[in-house]
Design goal:
globular, binds nicotinamide-adenine-dinucleotide, about 40% helix, 5-stranded mixed β-sheet, alpha/beta
């Protein structure tokens, strides 16, 4: 452990309104309107992330036992790519858009859409990808010209402290302050007036956020979890299913909002899929996941006990894994054959390394069951041939879909939930769009009055001229 990490200090509750008002003042003084200012902030953030990459990796290791590979790809590397993509495109995105298909009579008014920043916004991050899910939305908010209050998750405390160090090293403190804390500090933030709140977390807290936003008519983006199904038809390749679904659950020890929550497998394929899970597990972790440097731990004891309770309560049969170590917060990737979709392993979001499998008679049954558990999950994973996948797509809903794969999301596609899994989307160009107001602007020249006077009363006889 060669890297020294800063300590997490919660922000005093009494300081929170003052910090919010400094950010509000900075916005009202138009500090962030200048696109060059935004680009400089993004560039500085890029280099600060680069400079602190070892601290990011170490913080993720201490908070979650996250492997270096996953930390570099899904945390620091992800953010660096995001900044490059955003900075390269920003001049194009901020340009005024001409109104499409204009009638000749409106053309002289030069109608266009300006992309105005919303104002002073709040980003509340999650613990599981602490850097990506906090600073990812912040990158878009900076690019769009907002001032931003950044609230990392207290459940990944070392990452939260490193994030503050990075932000303070890189960003203008009056425009982008970091607030640290747990529930009381988040509630103090929610008592303030915001121009948008972007929350990543569970649906229970999501509802609290939406309620707190309502009195100020503050728009909200809710990036919530999901009870995501994988549907495996009789035409699927069992080896691909097992390798990809295991990957979906070993990444961050299953603490991934998009990872599949349960598998509905055509009964003719169940034993081969289970066999392939065992083979893949041996291949990925020859000495077992516990001995491997490439497997995370559960974030804290409360989450560990919740997961232990879920496994204790299942009526299913454990076919692979099942070992745990409370001291280490270790839970092995665990395949369980369940008897019903009502099993708690299927009906609750596990956010852990459980792989419940329910055998089904056919594709129609799988679709009906999936729509019954949660009709609007965050992700959906169909495995089968083209016709199977097409049928699944046309008879289900979900935030996103990875066909014949686990939680794979191409970073330039919009990412977000639908219904119970949240609303609003970001990533790629959407990370900019989600933070701007598309402000329609017309400019009517004085000489147009000769034509415009047709709109004034008295109206008699004018209708026929339109
Ligand atoms: P959470 O909802 O339990 O907590 C998030 C934050 O909310 C906490 O850090 C806390 O500060 C705050 N909070 C908790 N109770 C509060 C209250 N009563 N009032 C005000 N604030 C309160 O989420 P989590 O445990 O950090 O993350 C797990 C959940 O997040 C899972 O459901 C997962 O699927 C979801 N998630 C979604 C995405 C996505 O992009 N859609 C990504 C990651 C995680």
């Amino acid at each position: 452990m060669g890297v020294q990490l800063p300590e997490l200090q919660f922000t005093p509750l009494e300081d929170i309104p003052g910090r919010a008002s400094i950010a509000r003042k900075a916005f009202l003084e138009h500090k962030t309107r200048d696109v060059e200012f935004r680009l400089v902030q993004l560039r500085k953030l890029y280099w600060a992330i680069k400079d602190h990459e070892e601290e990011i990796v170490e913080a993720c290791a201490q908070d979650l036992h996250k492997p270096r590979f996953e930390a570099e790809i899904a945390e620091s590397g992800w953010l660096l790519n995001d900044i490059v993509f955003t900075s390269r495109n920003l001049h194009k995105w901020v340009k005024d858009e001409k109104a499409p298909d204009i009638d000749l009579s409106f053309k002289f008014m030069n109608p266009k859409i300006r992309k105005d920043p919303l104002g002073t916004v709040l980003v509340i991050g999650a613990f599981n990808f602490p850097f990506q899910l906090t600073l990812g939305p912040v990158i878009g908010a900076i690019a769009a010209g907002n001032t931003v209050i950044i609230k990392p998750s207290e459940n990944a405390p070392r990452s939260a402290a490193v994030m503050q160090k990075i932000c303070e090293a890189a960003l203008d403190p009056s425009c982008y302050p970091v607030i640290q804390g747990g529930v009381p500090e988040t509630q103090a933030l929610l008592a303030e007036r915001w121009d948008k709140i972007f929350f990543t977390g569970g649906a229970t807290v999501g509802r609290i956020i939406a309620k707190a936003a309502a009195p100020h008519l503050t728009p909200v983006v809710l990036e919530l979890g999901g009870i995501n199904p994988a549907i495996v038809t009789k035409n699927a390749d069992p080896r691909l299913v097992a390798r990809r679904m295991l990957w979906g659950k070993l990444m961050n020890a299953g603490q991934v909002c998009t990872s599949q929550n349960y598998l509905l497998v055509d009964k003719s394929l169940v034993s081969r899929v289970v066999e392939e899970f065992k083979k893949a597990y041996k291949e990925f972790y020859p000495k077992g996941a516990k001995e491997s440097p490439d497997y995370s731990r559960i974030v804290n004891i409360a989450a560990f006990q919740r997961l232990k309770g879920m496994l204790d309560n299942t009526k299913g049969k454990i076919l692979m894994g099942g070992t745990m170590d409370e001291k280490e917060l270790f839970i092995e990737p665990t395949v369980v054959q369940v008897e019903s979709v009502d099993d708690s392993l299927c009906t609750q979001e596990s956010f852990g390394p459980f792989i419940p499998i329910l055998p089904v008679e056919n594709l129609d049954e799988a679709i009906n069951l999936a729509n019954g558990v949660q009709s609007t999950p965050l992700g959906l994973y169909p495995f089968g041939n083209k016709a199977d996948v097409a049928k699944i797509l046309s008879s289900t809903r979900s935030g996103g879909v990875s066909c014949n794969d686990a939680a794979l999301h191409v970073p330039t596609l919009p990412f977000g939930g639908v219904g119970e899994s949240g609303y609003g989307a970001y990533r790629g160009r959407s990370s900019f769009d989600v933070w701007v107001h598309r402000r329609p602007i017309t400019s009517s020249p004085g000489w147009l009055e000769a034509i415009l006077s047709i709109r004034y009363p008295p109206y008699a006889g004018k209708l026929s001229k339109f």
